[in-house]
Structures are given as C-alpha cells and as structure tokens.
Design goal:
With 544 residues, this protein is α/β, with parallel strands linked by helices. The chain is built from 19 helices and 17 strands. The structure holds one RNA strand of 76 nucleotides.
RNA sequence: CGCGGGGUAGAGCAGCGGUAGCUUGUCGGGCUCAUAACCCGGAGGUCGUGUGGUUCAAAUCCCACCCCCGCAACCA
C-alpha cells in the first residue's frame, strides 16, 4: 500500500512566501539581505520540488521618516521613495532574488486594493472613532506626531524630541514635554481635538492565541516569545489613520484628509501582491486564501518586525475574511553585528548590498549570507570572512571537486566518459540528504540546511581521495569507470542541492554536464562526452 | 527591580546532565587528479566569576555577582 502511494504523482502544495518590505528612505544593507534571503531560498526550494509558489514583496514607501527626509533634502516624498525603490529593485536583482511580484506601496494597484480592504473593514465595523487632544502646528497647518515635536525634557531639561530624548535617552510620551514647539517650523504648538479611526485589535486576542498555539513549532523561537509577550499584556486597539500628507488616502468621507497608517497598508502588501498574481491567473484571492492545510504561508523578516507579522497582520487578515489562511511559518532572523556592535547608519558601519554586488558575484554573497545567517542569534558579517568562505568552500571544495575530475578526463581522455556504476553507499547518502535538507528548509532553517549540504562536498572530496582514481586508471579500468561515474553523479546532485542557494553557479555546472533544469530529487548524469569545461568559481585574492 | 540575547582553544562558533567539539589560524605528514587546491595527524581550553546549591555525575539545571551586546530612537 505504501509503495503505491509514493508512485502516485505527488500533489502540488501551495506556498505563499512574504518577504518583508524594505523601507524606502535608505540603501539596502546586509541586514536586509540576511533577513530576506531565506525567503528566496525557501521559494526556490519549493519550486524545485514542483510546488506552486508565490514569492511576493515590495518597497514600503509611505510614512513619516520619508516625509522628514524629503523635507530635509527639499524634494517631494515621492522622489525619495522612488529613488530608493529603484535601488532596491536593482540590489535584489543583483543578488538573484526570484520574486514573482515585487511592487511598491505607491503602486496604484496596491493603493486601490488597500482602500477596498479598508472600506470593507470599515463597513464590517472593525473600526471605531476616537477623539483626543493632539499637538497641532498652526503655521504648518497639521497635527504633529511625537517625533515631530520638540520640547524640554522632564528628566534632564535639554531640548528633546517627543518620543525620546537624545540627551538622556529616556523614552517618553510627548505629553510629558514642557514648552512644546513644532519640529518642522519651530513655531508654538497648541492642543486641539483630533479624531482618528481605531482598529479593534483587542477583539482578536483569542484568535492570535490560537494561531500561536497551532503554529508554535513552525515559528522561530524569537517570534513565539515576542508574540507571547504581546498576548500576555493583552492586545491594544491601534490607530489606523495618520495626519500626514504622504500615503494612501483614507477612503471614508469623514477622514478623507488623513492617510492610512503605514504598517497597516504595508503589511497587507503580501495580500495585495499575491492578489495581483492571482488576478493574472483568473483566480479569486478570497478562494485561494481560504484556510486550508495545503496552503503554507511563510513570512521572512527581522526580529524587530515580529509583532506586525504575528499579531497585526493575522488580525487584519481575519478582519478581511474570518475564514482566511494565516501565517504558518515565521522566519524572523536576529541581527547582523559588525564587530561587537550592531550595524547602523548612525554608527557609520553600514555594509550596503550595493557595495557588495559591485565587487562580488551574487553566489559568493548568497552563500556567505546564508552560512553566517543570524538564524538563532546575532552573527557577524565581514567581507574578509566572505572571501575566506568563498575560497575555502566554493573554490577549494565544490569547484575543486568538479575541476579535479573533469579537467583530468579532458586531459587524459579528450573528455570521453566511459560507463560504470555509481557507488551504492553514495546513492543512499545522496537520497537521504535530499530528504533531510528538504525538511530543514521547509522548517525555515536555511542556514542549518546549507551547513548540512556543505558536508556533501567533503564527502565527495574524501571519496575521491580514498579511491585514488589517478592510480586506479593505470591498474583497473573498470574501477576507474565506477569512480568517475560516482563523482559525476555527485556533481549532478550538487547542481540540484545547491541550486536554491547559488543558482547561477549551479546552472553553469548543469550546462557543463548537459543536465536539464534543477529539481529537488536524485538525478543521474549519463554524459559521455565533456565539452566546454570551465572553472566554476575563481579564487578571490584578498585586496583592499 | 523595564524587556531580551550572550560570555567555551588566537579568532568565529556548536554542545545545554554522563570521558570538552567544529570551522579558521598555527605546526607536521600524505597525495600529486586539482584554482598555494584535496586527505590525515599534533599542539592549543581549570567552558565569565563564586573553596555557592541540586546530583553518583554539571559547560549543561538552580542561586548570587561581574562583564558585553541588542530593543524600548531611523534601521532586518
């Protein structure tokens, strides 16, 4: 019975992978890269497995920080957002991200969909009105957010922003400040009544508790802990409108001068972008997103994004449709450190994706970014170590294994490969590697999976050394044939196993071996004549 | 008592109740098919501190203390 079952064509699984939306007010750095790359690996893995995948993301283009930057640079917020959106598209392409859809929150499609969703929630009574006093600047003619207010810090007496004092580092509420002024024009502020729409997040306490309970095994530990913290404090209702002039208009007459809060609309971008793809296929998003065991939903981001993905996003999805599928796998990574410190713009140690791609191959970057990924705790990222990893594992390990075999065959036999049998033990190890590594990737642990697959390189080189084909060739032609076949078999499987991680190089290897498209399953290679054999990776000489 | 992560060979890390392990570096050997590549072995640690607690047994659990880092500020 069991045998029969495996013979039946496997049913396609449906997988939606949402990668966090980088915020368009600065260049993308290796922190983003490490947070997002696992999503790409997972997507590529499922595609190789024959499953139906949607990898979606985009640029987060609205919000206060962008308007602040625009004001400083005396350009429009849109110019800022467009500039950085373009750099993101470029950077992501340069490291071979395989997005099915990468948009931006200022796309007309996204904006229209968000307004529809917003209205639907409004009509369904998910929001309520709230009025309270807020700081208003008359000359700017707008309400100010905490970070736009200046005033005297109640703790140290210096001039502070409304959210936290730069001098004594105390965080606060703007209401604690004395003698408040507008951070934009410097004028006095006044208190005025302001109304906003609030989302009844508190009503979803039970649902989120259930969600966490159901999926805690597929969520990273940091996501489980962080979510638990929010739940134990009790979920609070959140404002969904903001007083800004840059963003998506609130589609409700009474609030039409306000914008939708960025986190609400940006996080729903996963939904709008996958709807975009489904539209093309003539599938209704409501049908596709119906809760179902065969629909997996991964979300990849950094740890500071956790509550937005594990609490707010699921609650919004439920508000859209009570029967909606919710995130099943949370892939939330820790931080990249530079030396002992965190990487940040203000410390001036930002390592941008742009400068990396200027100097290095995408595969070199991807390989190292995954191998040193802050999967379970903070980890470091240095170009020196990246070069070291490249030379050691890609050049000396994988590349060398391919080259020592193929170049020998080319030199001694003009590239002719005779028949032979593949080693039984190697076959078994190969099969079990597909299985175990696949399971680890499905669990979202791409670093652990790659570490596992890297061991296959050592297995291969050791096999070669132990069997000494350069000696056997003179003594036992049949044995030499077997060894050669086994090595080529291992190369062929490397070109599959490593494909999600370093796709460009593995496609080059496939071309050399005249293999078809990558698949996540054991493959043999019956090549008889080698042609166009090239070195797979070039050694990087350390220079600065 | 704000919350969280961490302190293990020169460096970077794994182990998280049972003879201290991996990678890199270093030293030596092997091989000569290979891009100073590959394979094997040696040296190197009283596992932050405590003549602390639990245990037959502690890097591993508990307690106290010290130190680093992150979050609560734009930022994954």
């Amino acid at each position: 019975m069991k045998q029969e079952k495996t013979d039946v064509k496997k049913q396609k699984r449906r997988v939606i992978i949402g990668n966090a939306w980088p915020y368009a007010n600065n260049l993308m750095h290796v922190g983003h890269l490490c947070a997002l790359l696992p999503g790409d690996i997972i997507a590529r893995y499922y595609r190789l497995s024959g499953d139906e995948v949607m990898l979606v993301s985009g640029s987060d283009c609205h919000g206060t920080p962008i308007t602040e930057r625009a004001r400083k640079e005396k350009v429009s917020p849109r110019e800022i957002a467009e500039t950085y959106h373009k750099t993101f598209v470029r950077d992501l392409g340069a490291v071979n991200f395989s997005y099915d859809k990468y948009g931006a929150t200022f796309d007309d499609y996204h904006k229209a969909e968000i307004q529809k969703i917003f209205l639907k929630m409004y009509d369904a009574g998910e929001f309520f009105k709230k009025t309270d006093t807020q700081d208003f600047c008359e000359s700017c003619n707008m309400f100010l957010s905490d970070r736009e207010i200046r005033g005297t810090c109640p703790h140290c007496g210096s001039i502070s922003k409304g959210d936290q004092c730069d001098n004594c580092l105390t965080s606060m509420d703007a209401s604690q400040l004395k003698e408040k002024t507008c951070g934009i024009c410097g004028g006095k502020t006044q208190q005025r009544q302001n109304k906003s729409l609030m989302f009844k997040l508190s009503g979803y306490q039970k649902d989120i508790e259930c969600l966490l309970d159901k999926n805690r095994d597929h969520w990273r530990v940091n996501a489980v802990n962080e979510t638990q913290k929010y739940l134990s404090q009790g979920l609070l209702d959140r404002a969904v409108t903001r007083d800004l002039n840059w963003g998506i208009d609130v589609p409700v007459e009474e609030f039409k001068d306000k914008k939708i809060y960025v986190w609400i609309e940006a996080v729903l971008g996963y939904y709008t972008m996958s709807k975009f793809l489904l539209d093309q296929r003539g599938i209704k998003v409501e049908d596709y997103y119906k809760a179902s065991d065969d629909l997996r939903m991964y979300l990849a981001h950094g740890k500071d994004n956790i509550p937005f993905h594990t609490v707010i996003y699921p609650a919004l999805l439920l508000a859209v449709d009570k029967n909606c599928q919710l995130p099943t796998h949370i892939v939330s990574c820790e931080y990249i450190k530079v030396g002992a410190e965190k990487m940040s713009k203000s410390l001036g140690n930002l390592l941008t994706v742009y400068e990396l791609t200027e100097k290095f191959d995408p595969d070199t970057i991807r390989f190292y970014a995954i191998l040193s990924n802050p999967e379970k705790k903070d980890s470091g990222f240095t170009t020196t170590e990246m070069i070291n990893t490249h030379n050691k594992l890609l050049v000396g390990g994988l590349g060398n294994f391919v080259n020592r075999n193929l170049s020998y065959l080319v030199k001694k036999f003009e590239g002719k490969v005779s028949g032979g049998a593949v080693d039984k033990d190697i076959i078994e190890k190969t099969r079990s590697l597909y299985k175990s590594a696949g399971e680890i990737i499905e669990a979202g642990n791409t670093r652990e999976a790659l570490e596992h697959i890297v061991e296959y390189i050592q297995l291969a080189n050791k096999y070669y050394d132990d069997n000494k084909p350069w000696v056997k060739v003179h003594e036992d032609a049949a044995a030499f044939g077997d060894i050669t076949r086994t090595c080529i078999y291992m190369m062929a499987n490397m070109s599959n196993l490593f494909h999600p991680f370093i796709p460009a190089a593995m496609d080059r290897l496939k071309a050399m071996l005249k293999l078809g498209a990558a698949k996540w399953e054991e493959v043999d290679c019956d090549i008889t004549q080698l042609e166009n054999i090239n070195i797979l990776f070039n050694r990087i000489e350390e220079e600065k």
